[in-house]
Amino acid sequence: MGRLDQQMAFVGEVGQLKSVLRQTVLADIGRPENSAEHSWHLAVMALALAEHAPPGTDLSKVIGMVLVHDLVEIDAGDLFLYADQSEQERQLIAERAAADRIFAILPAEQATAMRQLWDEFMERTTAEARFARALDRLQPFLENFSVGGGTWKRHGITADQVLAKVKLIEDGSPTLGRYAEDLVGRAVEMGLLA
Amino acid sequence: MGRLDQQMAFVGEVGQLKSVLRQTVLADIGRPENSAEHSWHLAVMALALAEHAPPGTDLSKVIGMVLVHDLVEIDAGDLFLYADQSEQERQLIAERAAADRIFAILPAEQATAMRQLWDEFMERTTAEARFARALDRLQPFLENFSVGGGTWKRHGITADQVLAKVKLIEDGSPTLGRYAEDLVGRAVEMGLLA
Are strands B32-34 and A21-25 parallel, antiparallel or unpaired? Predict the structure, then answer.
């Protein structure tokens, strides 16, 4: 296969992400969100909220990360944020196998570059990865809040459980972390969170 | 409203794009595509097909454009590519009004920058806009082909009509234009196009 055919095979394959459903139910629309439109939302958030990333953060790298961060779910599916430890571990193994398969559809050096981007997102050691992970954590909070509880209510999640997850937002962006903490406080007042 | 509140209002508003349905029916998934996941697919295509843009093209600008190019459809809806001239003109007026409203949700200088990006995409005079428009034109071709005809069959579109639309792909990327032309030839052979 020529380079362009490999790239087009990848373009066709990634379209399957539109069929991977998340726990989040979309406000007003009333159906589960899929991982493709979720990834798009994160990329637009990166554009709109760029100034809340630490100084010197490479925004185009952040956007690349959020665009491809969920491709592994084509094989591994989406796991609920509050799943238990053993499920999380199984998920990680499935996601690594998916990354091995999916990125390798691209020509070799593109496959390597995109896999590195995904590994960096997962490892969360750079400013870019930490900001990207903060956006990924923040977006379902916003959806839950605007839908009047969402997965928090459906699964009986408590404020303490949510606040434990806010730490990852603070770690990527102190400003967005404070915003999320305030949101949790308001959600408790409104009875959206136990 | 503070800057962050304006930005978060924008982040909430853009989520509505997930409810805007396109003509394209997704292969394997069997439901219409929405404009949010379509925009995500274009951004991933920009990453995977970057080398087919003219030398010197600013890829992060292309990605910014494809991420926001359809936001106006939150108010204006999606128009079928083969709609007649008077419909296209009405659509353009509705999209401009939508751009006036939606981008203005952001703090002023961000609103101006994002509106300029959208205007540039629409005017199609820069290399970035021409490549972004080429991707936007190519993606439904690929979907129609893999779904066995799609909107081409449903609306009785002919090869000549499709080839007239291929010119915009060639204009943004000669390589992708040739690829699309070959695809049309194969579609005719396979009876997907009259």
Answer: unpaired
